[in-house]
Amino acid sequence: MYGVSRLGGMTMRLLIALIPALGVVPGPVWANDIEVVPRDPEDQVQIYRDGAGLWRDTKYFLGYQFGAIAILYAMPESVSGWSSEQKKDYSLSVWWEKTTHPENDSDTFYINYILHPYWGAAYFVRARERGYNNWQSFGYSTLLSSIFEFGIEAMAEEPSKQDLWVTPVIGSMVGMYFMHVRGGIRARDIERGYRSTGDKWLWVLTDPLGSLNSQFDKWFGWDTEVKLRPYRAQPEASPRGDSGPPDSRDSEYTYGLQLQVRW
Q1: 72 in the same domain as 24
Q2: Is 153 in the same domain as 78?
Q3: Same domain, 111 and 52
Q4: Of 122 and 236, the one with more pLDDT
Q5: What confidence tens digit (pLDDT) does each residue in 199-214 have?
Q6: What is the mean pLDDT of residues 151-162?
Q7: Which residue in 116, 123, 148, 118 sits closest to 138, CA to CA?
Q8: Measured CA distances, 49 to 13, 41, 45, 46, 52 (Å)
Q9: Are residues 235 and 210 in the same domain?
């Protein structure tokens, strides 16, 4: 089951391929387009925990996995590793048999110790960017990697013992480094007033799920923000000499409503 056992790799390639197509890395980004949350670049602790946002990220993650398995299911056996008979005979008992017998897999070093830690880091970063601390983000990385091993991937093969610890443990260590990188990007945004192309790509690669999810948020209208607030402004006084009569506009104010829509 060569193709299905590397579902994680195919999922990554699908997401990376979608990044330019979906406009995740846009044109020039200027300072007024960058939302900079006041935080310590070294620690990256957000002011609040966005539980609703993390739950939405989790649903996106599940959707990506089901989308990847659906694509593989529709592909020929030479790609997916599933024969027509296996597709017809698949049942819940087959899944249960696989999930209750984890085993050491024989995947290549690249799959087990580069690709899996990268995705573990991506899960970790997603939770950190939602305001959770390192231990909570480690738990979230463990949760998502377990969902993958015992969920989608178990449709094809037994859960991997190596992946169950390599993905969240090494991945969280890589994720902490990613957060340091992202803190540096934020600091350069403030210093330079814009984000360079290299930094934009680093931003995406250190949080691929967040970059992709934000595009779907915009499409579905979940990232739309509407503000309506009153304002009061005083017009500038006209120049006059020290002995001139007072300008009546000094005591006049203009009142109004300001509408701001961000999407």
Answers
A1: yes
A2: yes
A3: yes
A4: 122
A5: 999 999 999 999 999 8
A6: 80
A7: 123
A8: 30, 17, 9, 7, 9
A9: no
Question: How many domains does one find in the chain?
Answer: 2
Q: Which domain holds residue 243?
A: 225-262
Residues 131-146 have pLDDT tens digits of: 999 999 999 999 999 9
- pTM here is 0.68
- Most confident range (mean pLDDT) of 78-82, 171-175, 215-219 is 171-175
Q: How confident is the model at residue 17 (pLDDT cuts 50, 70, 90)?
A: very low
Same domain for 113 and 55: yes
Same domain? 165 vs 90: yes
Instruction: Indicate whether 151 and 200 sit together in one domain.
Output: yes
The predicted pLDDT at position 106 comes to: 79
64 and 192 in a single domain? The answer is yes
